[in-house]
Automatic annotation (TrEMBL):
Residues 1-12 have a biased composition (Polar residues). The keyword Hydrolase applies. Coiled coil: none annotated. Residues 1-25 are annotated as: Disordered. The lineage of its organism: Bacteria, Bacillati, Actinomycetota, Actinomycetes, Streptosporangiales. It comes from Actinocorallia longicatena. This is Alpha/beta fold hydrolase.
């Protein structure tokens, strides 16, 4: 029987809820699957859902992902937990392989300083950690999954492939997670703010929300009872693409936001360090839908961006932004691949051009830019030299800025043949070819091995 632990403080501020129009758009009557939802609710110790459950593109979102009305005050506090069945599990005399997973909901703080409930998953590996010290922990920030609640990384651990005619979600990060577990490293995965949780929209690629959610996932994992983690467990962060931006931001903000967490190492692969440049890269690409996710997320955080966008977007653009808010990567590619933002604006200008003409939006995106703070601990920065989605140049600039601040940076430009312009292949290939080396590098940091970085070589590198 599923177990759920609930901790909440009655005197905390009321949780910010998604606007009523958003709930009406996403919450649809469901005739199928209500029995399953009721069983889940009964097994987890919560009351069964009344008549309807939240759905996103035909996928029923479990009641676990509904945040409570009031949230605890302390960041990283566990709100509820539940056993999470992994899709791929093998039997072993020492326990299930690769490990036992727990679904989490914990408290975090968003970019505007407001409390937010975030979900995720912790996996306790069955394999023994054979390095120095107690079992370490990696905070895993997933790459781009989408903006619909059905795309949440924790759901992808249970359902690595979701295809129902309305949505296509692929848990491509599961491979990296299993590689970490095979090293005996515990992993905690964050779903980010608003991805999975049914009370708000996911703030895709927003620097502060992502960093806070990742750091608070580490805090939540350390507070989870009956794990092998100790106060001396070394901590690492890992992320590629959207996840690389999250891990990079977390490494920058950790000294201020979570000073009690000591980072032994951070892997930031293809981080969207400068959204102004990344927006130009994704516009017209196979992943053009990510531009809509960025606009939706930033508009929720910054009213000024919402005002500017609303003043320029046409009816087709409004419909696309609304539709994209419930999509995963697969359906976004199928529906919006190679679309250009010029199709979405009244005067035919691109979103990039509109941003360039708006001092207020440029100021906001400058606040979102990575590289203004020295990251904590050693960092490995990876970028595909021919990456034309999360464009290579802005990643290298991030490494240069960090090196100038005296950071311990290992910069790794990945050189591969051109696999097709704007096809997403030049962005994904470095993830696959470099992942083993990245995990090896991070494992060495968690094993207490020192690194001096490669800043001295950076001027001669692409």
């Amino acid at each position: 029987m599923a177990r759920e632990t609930i901790q909440a403080s009655g005197d905390t501020p009321r949780q910010e809820r998604r606007p009523a129009r958003e709930i009406r758009r996403r919450a649809l009557p469901v005739t199928g699957g209500l029995a399953a939802a009721a069983i889940l609710a009964a097994g987890s110790g919560v009351s069964a859902a009344p008549q309807h459950r939240e759905t996103s593109r035909g996928i029923t979102i479990p009641a676990f992902y509904d945040p409570p009305k009031h949230l605890p005050r302390k960041n990283g506090t566990l709100i509820r937990t539940q056993p999470l069945p992994l899709a791929v599990t093998l039997s072993d005399v020492k326990g299930p392989l690769p490990g036992r997973a727990t679904r989490l909901m914990y408290k975090s703080t968003d970019a505007n300083g407001k409390p937010v409930a975030v979900t995720g998953a912790y996996i306790e590996p069955t394999k023994k950690w054979r390095g120095r010290g107690p079992r370490p922990l990696i905070g895993m920030a997933a790459g781009t999954m989408g903006q619909g609640d059905q795309c949440a990384p924790s759901l992808a651990l249970q359902h690595p492939l979701t295809v129902n005619g309305e949505t296509v979600s692929v848990g491509y990060e599961d491979l990296g997670i299993y590689r970490m577990l095979n090293e005996g490293i515990a992993v905690v995965v964050t779903d980010y703010a608003g991805l999975g949780t049914t009370d708000r929209l996911h703030t895709y690629a927003e620097r502060f929300d992502q960093a806070h959610a990742l750091l608070d996932a580490v805090r939540a994992a350390k507070r989870l009872p009956r794990t092998s983690l100790t106060a001396k467990s070394r901590i690492g962060l890992y992320g590629y693409s959207q996840g690389g931006g999250a891990s990079a931001a977390a490494a920058e903000l950790q000294p201020r936001y979570a000073p009690e967490i000591h980072l032994s190492g951070t892997y930031a692969g293809a981080p969207p360090a400068d959204l102004t440049q990344v927006i130009k890269g994704i516009d017209g690409s196979a992943l053009a839908g990510a531009l809509g996710w960025s606009i939706n997320g930033l508009s929720q955080t910054y009213p000024e961006i919402r005002r500017v966008i609303n003043g320029h977007v046409n009816a087709k653009g409004r419909a696309a932004l609304k539709d994209l808010s419930t999509t995963c990567v697969g359906d976004a590619i199928l529906r919006y691949g190679f679309s250009t933002s010029k199709q979405w604006t009244r005067d035919g200008r691109s979103v990039g051009a509109i941003i360039a003409a708006s001092p207020s939006v440029k100021k906001i995106l400058a606040r979102e830019r990575l590289g203004s703070l020295k990251p904590a601990g050693p960092v490995r920065v990876t970028t595909g030299v021919l990456d034309d989605i999360v464009v290579h140049g802005q990643v290298r600039t991030l490494a240069v800025r960090w090196c100038a601040k005296g950071a311990n940076v290992t910069y790794k430009p990945v050189k591969l043949p051109n696999l097709g312009n704007k096809l997403l292949t030049n962005h994904l290939a470095p993830l696959l070819t470099d992942q083993g080396d990245a995990i090896t590098w991070l494992t060495a940091r968690l094993n207490g091995k020192r690194t001096t970085g490669t800043c001295a070589k950076l001027p001669g590198q692409p």
